[in-house]
């Protein structure tokens, strides 16, 4: 089954404790992205990746890191989480179909930083 | 820079009626794609429909159609014959179609509630 898998689904942590949210896709997609969703703000792109070892900042990259060492994996790293990073996070992957860039989303990770 | 505006925080529609969800956009790109996604209360994001800026016809996918008016920079989603399962958040999004495909911008969403 084609899917994007995020782990964990729920996470409660404390300020300053490094964490990683994993994302894996089995569709051989070149493109992957991380978003955060906050009430009243919609989805905002944190980082995206065009292929292995190629990443770029989205609209809200501060406080986050990513890496793309393998095509299927795109982890999101919070080196020193703060309460304002409490949010719902989505990973997405896509591959161009002509000029269509339809994204497939993971189920989301709900993060609370205390 | 890209910008998506959804001005309807919430909408109600009677079951079996049609409903239009508004989306306007702004971009400096000549070629771009517009998308609609649905997010039910369970939280997953589901792709609904795509419109390319150079597509001559409005996109349709089953009960979903996209009313694309390029000169007005609008890309409204029309849902025909609403069903209870259509109750969800709906997000409009866009991305460039020539390079920078991954730079995706979403609107803040519209919450649709279908009334029996």
Number of helices of chain A: 0
Unreliable residue runs of chain A: none
- What general form of chain A does the structure show? globular
Instruction: Considering residues with a beta carbon less than 8 A from a beta carbon on another chain, report the largest interface and each chain's count.
Output: A-B, 29 and 25 residues
Alpha-carbon Rg of chain A, integer:
13 Å
Q: Roughly how many Å is the radius of gyration of chain B? A: 14 Å
Number of separate helices of chain B: 0
Mean pLDDT of chain A: 94
From the N-terminal CA to the C-terminal CA of chain B, the straight-line distance is 41 Å
Q: For this entry, what is the oligomeric state of its chains? A: heterodimer
The major beta sheet of chain B can be summarized as: 6 strands, mixed
Helix content of chain B: under 10%
Whole-number mean pLDDT of chain B? 94
Topology of helices and strands:
The complex is a heterodimer of chains A (114) and B (116).
Chain A: E1 4-7, E2 10-13, E3 19-25, E4 31-38, E5 42-51, E6 54-57, E7 65-66, E8 76-78, E9 87-94, E10 103-105, E11 109-113
Parallel strand pairs in A: 2-11
Antiparallel strand pairs in A: 1-3, 3-8, 4-5, 4-9, 5-6, 7-8, 9-10, 9-11
Chain B: E1 3-5, E2 10-14, E3 19-21, E4 24-26, E5 32-39, E6 46-52, E7 60-61, E8 64-69, E9 74-79, E10 88-96, E11 105-106, E12 110-115
Parallel strand pairs in B: 2-12
Antiparallel strand pairs in B: 1-4, 3-9, 5-6, 5-10, 7-8, 8-9, 10-11, 10-12
Description:
- The complex is a heterodimer of chains A (114) and B (116).
- By secondary structure, chain A is mainly β.
- Chain A is built from no helices and 11 strands.
- Chain A has strands at 4-7, 10-13, 19-25, 31-38, 42-51, 54-57, 65-66, 76-78, 87-94, 103-105, 109-113.
- In chain A, the strands form 2 sheets. In chain A, strands 2, 4, 5, 6, 9, 10 and 11 form a 7-stranded mixed sheet that branches. A 4-stranded antiparallel sheet of chain A has the order 1-3-8-7, with no helix packed on it.
- Chain A is globular, with a radius of gyration of 13 Å.
- The model of chain A has no long low-confidence stretch (mean pLDDT 94).
- With 116 residues, chain B is mostly beta strands.
- In chain B, the strands form 3 sheets. In chain B, strands 2, 5, 6, 10, 11 and 12 form a 6-stranded mixed sheet that branches. Chain B has a 4-stranded antiparallel sheet with strand order 3-9-8-7, with no helix packed on it.
- In chain B, strand 8 and strand 9 (74-79) form a beta hairpin.
- Chain B is globular and about 45 Å long.
- Helix content of chain B is 0%, strand content 52%.
- Classes of the chains: A mainly beta (114), B mainly beta (116).
- At the A-B interface, strand 4, strand 5, strand 9 and strand 10 of A face strand 6, strand 10 and strand 11 of B.
């Amino acid at each position: 089954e084609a899917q994007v898998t995020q782990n964990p689904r729920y996470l409660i942590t404390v300020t300053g404790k490094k964490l990683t949210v994993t994302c894996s896709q089995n569709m051989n997609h070149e493109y992957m992205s991380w978003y955060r969703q906050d009430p009243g703000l919609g989805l905002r792109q944190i980082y995206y990746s065009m292929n292995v070892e190629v990443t770029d900042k989205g609209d809200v990259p501060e406080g986050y890191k990513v890496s793309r060492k393998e095509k299927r994996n795109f982890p999101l790293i919070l080196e020193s989480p703060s309460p304002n990073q409490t949010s719902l996070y989505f990973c997405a992957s896509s591959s161009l179909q002509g000029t269509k860039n339809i994204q497939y989303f993971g189920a989301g990770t709900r993060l609370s930083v205390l | 820079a890209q910008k998506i505006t959804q001005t309807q925080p919430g909408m109600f529609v009677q079951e079996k009626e049609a409903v239009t969800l508004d989306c306007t956009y702004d971009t400096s790109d000549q070629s771009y794609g517009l998308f609609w996604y649905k997010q039910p209360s369970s939280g997953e994001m589901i792709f609904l429909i795509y419109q390319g800026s150079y597509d001559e016809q409005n996109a349709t996918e089953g009960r979903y159609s996209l009313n694309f008016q390029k000169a007005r920079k609008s890309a409204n989603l029309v849902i025909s014959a609403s069903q209870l399962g259509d109750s969800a958040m709906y997000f409009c999004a866009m991305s460039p179609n020539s390079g920078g495909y991954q730079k995706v911008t979403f609107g803040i969403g519209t919450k649709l509630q279908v009334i029996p």
